[in-house]
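URGENT: need a sanity check before tomorrow's submission.

F., can you look over the Phosphodiester glycosidase domain-containing protein record below? I want to be sure the sequence and structure line up before it goes out.
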Amino acid sequence: MTMTIKQFNRFCLLTCAPFIGLLIWMLYSSMSFTLTDNAFPRDNSAASVPLQETSRVLGDLDLAKQTAADTAKSLKKTIALYQATNQSMNSIVKTASAQSGRPAKIYDTRITKKIGAPLETVKSDNLQAQLFAVKAQNFSGYALKVKLNSDKGMKMVLGQDKYGSSETTLAAVKRYKAVAGVNAGGFADDRGKRYPLSTTVVNGEYLSGFEPTYKDLFFVGLNERMELIGGKFVDKTQLDEQKPKFGASFVPVLLKNGVTQKIPEKWKNNPVRAPRTAVANYKDNQLLFLVVDGRNENGSSGATLEEMQILLSRFGAIDGYNLDGGGSSTLVFNGRVVNHPSDGVLRSLPTHFLFFK
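Structure tokens as predicted:
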């Protein structure tokens, strides 16, 4: 059967008419459509975690917080304990330091009391120098106790810094701007020159070579550690082992290890009494210089060598050596000559011990 175009149009109209009518009704009616939650896909991952698992996780978090809080408290206690311990250790160190220096202070107090009350004291980073008056039945003089704190506190110098030249101890003190000075070793005159006697060391160097000890001569000085060294040396190796920094020679030895040494008859009576200078040391390496006055050198005033030994022993010295005396005996302290040199004027000398602030 053949269908015409008109018939086909009618067929389509009849077929679509119900749908078109329904669409028109929907547009003009108040009907609305609401989609439920079920119309959309849901994320079931959260729902997949059981409730008890969630509770466990929350419990772990609370435990972690509590642990962190406890750790913080523990750290605070540890820090506080460390600080307290540190303060205690500092206190212990300070106490130990004070206690460690206590024996030295006690010893210094003990030996100082034996000499008397100091007339003057000079303290610096380099030294402590104390001046004392010494009085006996037949003489008077002074003692100089020196504690060296550095190798800059003391040196021995030549007169005018030249071998064969000389100057007074006061002149050397002023030229070097020293705080104190004492005459040093013996000397010999030759054609208008004044030379140090026998072995002499300046700035670690032998001035005119080493001379083996003969007769009653000795060498006395300080080593590189600023300790007093002295005695008789038969060869240069012996003295080199002592590492002398400076020193001079004279006669005789007075004390060794606290024991008085026998005075040779030649020096015991030539002269009997005279102005004297001696150097000694203590167990803590402090130095003691004695400078005794006398009106002249004819033996009528001043001290005997035995009396110098007695003084050194009474003052607690260990080793003692007699230095050049007579008109050479000179002690300068704080810019002035404190003793009374027997010549009436200061003697020009080739060697001097100087002390520096």
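My own read: Helices lie at 5-28, 51-115, 169-176, 236-241, 265-268, 305-314. The chain has a mean pLDDT of 87. If you see anything odd, call me.
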